[in-house]
Each structure stands twice: as structure tokens, then as C-alpha cells.
Amino acid sequence: MKPYNYLIIGSGIFGATFAYLAKQSGKRSLVIEKRPHFGGNVYCESIEDINVHKYGAHIFHTSNKEVWDFVNHFVEFNRYTNCPVANYKGRLYNLPFNMNTFYQMWGVTTPDEAMRKIEEQKALVSIHGEPRNLEEQALRLVGKDIYEALIKGYTEKQWGRLCTELPAFIIRRLPLRFVFDNNYFNDAYQGIPIGGYNRLVNALLEGVDARLNTDFFAHREELSSLAETIVYTGPIDEFYDYRLGRLQYRTVHFEQEILDIPNYQGNAVVNFTDREVPYTRIIEHKHFERFGNTVYDNPKTVIYKEYSVEFKDGMEPYYPVNDEKNTALYNQYKAMADQEENVYFGGRLAEYKYYDMAPTIERAMELAKKVLKE
Ligand code: FAD
Ligand code: UDP
Q1: Are 304 and 327 in contact (CB under 8 A)?
Q2: Which of 41, 83, 238, 271 to mutate to test the pocket of ligand 1 (most atoms within 8 A of CB)?
Q3: In degrees rounded to 5, what are phi and psi of residue 126?
Q4: Ligand 1: residues whose CB is within 6 Å?
């Protein structure tokens, strides 16, 4: 008889959610985490009394009421709505692409004028059939001016690849609307946990055995012997010792600055969409939790400049690169994973999918429904 039903590798949103659901079903789990803290990429640290999202800005959004109720059961969420601003060569544009953006770009003031302008723009480029890559998809969606000012430079910086080499679906994440609405998401529910994401993760892990600074691969045999089943949330290629080759990831280097001013850029997220600025965006964390002018209550601010870089050993893998080559390699690893009897793979890295937090929770819930009744 093994001491645990589940060995859960990784304490991110997937591992923590599964651990909670397993506990609710009366199962015993051991969560191991190689980092010195729990929470994976949603981990926050308080700096100058500001909750800093250490691995990049995280805004929770979903239309799934079950998921929204689930997270709100553990921690109260504020009513933050993400409204990033794009800075292109010193001029500011609202995102996502909406009437404000069209006004700023072309001076058009009605939806009709904006639609006509976009049709005109699309006519400047001839694309037939299904868009084969991100460039074609973007041109098909918004035409030439917006593609060149707000998409091309940002995307090529973020992914380190040409827009013609990237899959079309990446840009379909962004809404396009003919109303004055700067909400970056179309979802019914949105917000940030009051007090930061650690409160959510800690609540999920409460009463579950968990170890920090423990890398599965450093003690593979010993740790595996502790549980009947493994739930793995790390990179799938690493699980198989890269035997079919390495999957590619993008990662982000964050340059932190603590400034002696209360309000640096007036918004949580400002994207720098031209190629010349080396970083992709600046995050000013205190705006995630401000109401109105409370930003001035704290005389300091913390900003992160985000530099997008190709993943190398020793870095944190963040974004799976879902192009054709990597997808084909992932499918080979997935075929191996499907053969495993007592190992389940879940989350952004183990499934090599560009999941946000809410879909990650959905996936953990699906796995729990499937396996926990056994
Ligand atoms: P992770 O958070 O990566 O957790 C995996 C954990 O496993 C990590 O803690 C890792 O240390 C651990 N681990 C890996 N290998 C081992 C091992 N061998 N032994 C022990 N532990 C191991 N989503 C949103 O919904 N909204 C946003 O605004 C948003 N912004 C994002 C911004 C950035 C820069 C990034 C990178 C992601 C963003 N996301 C956002 C996505 C969000 O971070 C993910 O959906 C979520 O964190 C996925 O959780 P996970 O548990 O699958 O993975
Ligand atoms: N994007 C862009 N310009 C922007 C913001 C985003 O071209 O100002 C593109 C970029 O290719 C990015 C995609 O839209 O990868 C999706 O953006 P999102 O903000 O969802 O990416 P995230 O940072 O959340 O992964």
C-alpha cells in the first residue's frame, strides 16, 4: 500500500486545482514543486506593498460560471477589467481593436465609417482562401494599417518569428469590435484576486502534503514509489528525457524597477508595438488593484519591462510555440503519454497548449471527473 494516491508534479493552477479536488474526494496527494514557492506562473510577491505578478501580468477571465464560482469560493475577486494601451512610435492606441482604436488610427467616428475603412484596407492586400498564417489572418481581420502599426512588430518581438511563420489562431485571441469598448476580453467574468493569486493557490493546497524545492527528475524513482498515480504538469518533452527531440518555448525576461513616483504610466499594461523598442510591454502592477485614484495612496510604484526571449536550458518555459514543427513533435510525445497507465499529463506545459488560467482549471476539473471516481 503506497502512502499517497497521487503524486502531483507542479503546484501551478493545474496541480493545485487537481490536488484540491482529489482531497475533496477523500484521496491523499503529495504535491512537489521544484521552485521555492507554490503557484507556478501565477505566483505574486509583495514589493513596496504592491502585489507583483512575478511571472508576468495575470488577469483572470472566463465565461464558465462553474469555474468563476469555483475560484470565488476561495478568494474574493476585484472588478479589474483589462484595457491595455498600445504605444506605437510615441502615439497611443486603445486595445483591443475597437471604435476607439479606429478613431485614433483614421479619425472615423461611426461604426459604418470604420467598417468601410477596414474593407478599403483589406482590399489593399489580396488574400484568398483560408488564412495560412498569422499575417494573412491579421490582414484579413483588420487590414494593412492596424496590422503594420499594432500587430506585426509586437508579434515578431513576442514570438521571435515572422508573422508568416506563426499559426493564425494566435491573433484570433484578440477581439475586434465596432463599439467603444476597451475591455480586452469578451468573457462574462473578469478580475484579480484581492490580495493576490497566492491566496487562491494556498487555499487550494490547504490540508494537502506539499514539498517545495523538489525536482521530480532529481528523485524520480523514490518519488514515483510514493504514489499509485502521477499527475504531471511539467514540460512533456522533459518527462521523456527529450528522447524525440526538444519542444520549443518562448520565455520572458522581466526587468524590475522600483520608482519613487506614484503613477508611472497610468495603466497596468502598455504594449510597445514597434520593433525599435526592445521590450514588448511595461506592466505597472499597482493598477491591477487600484480603484479610481487610490494609485496615489502609495508614493512608490513597481514596473516590469518584458523582454521576450527564446527558451534555453535553465530558463522558465512559458509559451509553447504551436507551429507545425513543434505540433508534430508534441503529437509524438502525446502518443507516448497516451500509453501510460498511471500517469496523467495536464496544464500548459504537459499538454503543450496556450491555455489561460480558466481553461487550465477546466482541464483539471475534467481530469478529476474522469479519474477520481475510480
Ligand atoms: P505552471 O503555472 O507553469 O505550473 C507548472 C508548475 O510545475 C511550475 O510551478 C513548475 O515549477 C512545476 N514543475 C515543472 N517541472 C517540475 C518538476 N520536474 N518537478 C517539480 N515541479 C515541476 N492566463 C490568464 O488566464 N490570464 C493572463 O493574463 C495570463 N497571462 C500570462 C502571462 C504570462 C507571461 C504567462 C507565461 C502566462 C500567462 N497566462 C495567463 C497563462 C497562465 O500562466 C497559465 O494558464 C497557468 O499558469 C497554467 O498553469 P499550469 O499549472 O499548467 O502551469
Ligand atoms: N498582439 C499584437 N499586438 C498587441 C497585443 C497582442 O499583435 O498589442 C498579438 C500577439 O501576436 C499576441 C497575440 O496577439 O501573441 C495574443 O495576445 P495576448 O495578449 O492574448 O497574448 P498573451 O500575452 O496573453 O499571451
Answers
A1: no
A2: 41
A3: -105, 110
A4: 9-15, 32-35, 40-42, 55-60, 215-217, 233-234, 252, 318, 347-349, 355-358, 360
Q: Looking at the DSSP assignment, which residues form a beta bridge with residue 235?
A: none
> What is the SS3 assignment for 351?
coil
Q: Provide the 3-class DSSP secondary structure of residue 62.
A: strand
Helix (H, G, I), strand (E, B) or coil at 16: helix
Beta-ladder partners of 271: 86, 281
Task: Specify the amino acid at residue 45.
Answer: E
Q: What is the mean pLDDT of residues 118-144?
A: 89
Measured between alpha carbons, how far is 368 from 3 in angstroms, rounded to an integer?
20
Q: Is 175 exposed, middle or buried (0-12, 13-18, 19+ CB in 10 A)?
A: middle
Q: Which ligand is nearest to the CA of 311?
A: 1
- For 331-340, the pLDDT digits (tens) are 999 999 999 9
- Note whether 24 and 373 are within 8 A (CB): no
Residues 343 and 353: their CA atoms lie apart, in Å, by 18
The confidence band for 185, taking pLDDT boundaries of 50, 70 and 90, is: very high
Nearest CA to ligand 1 atom 31: 58
pLDDT digits (tens, 9 = 90+) for 218-228: 999 999 999 99
The residue from 135, 136, 284, 356 that is catalytic is: 356
CA angle 153, 156, 157 (to 5 degrees): 80
CB 83 within 8 A of CB 94: yes
- Sequence-distant (6+) residues with CB within 8 A of 353 are 320, 322
d(CA 26, CA 4) in angstroms, rounded, equals 11
Instruction: Kindly report whether the global pTM for this prediction surpasses the value 0.85.
Output: yes
Q: Residue 76 burial (CB < 10 Å; 0-12/13-18/19+)? A: exposed
By CB atoms closer than 10 A (0-12, 13-18, 19+), residue 74 is: middle
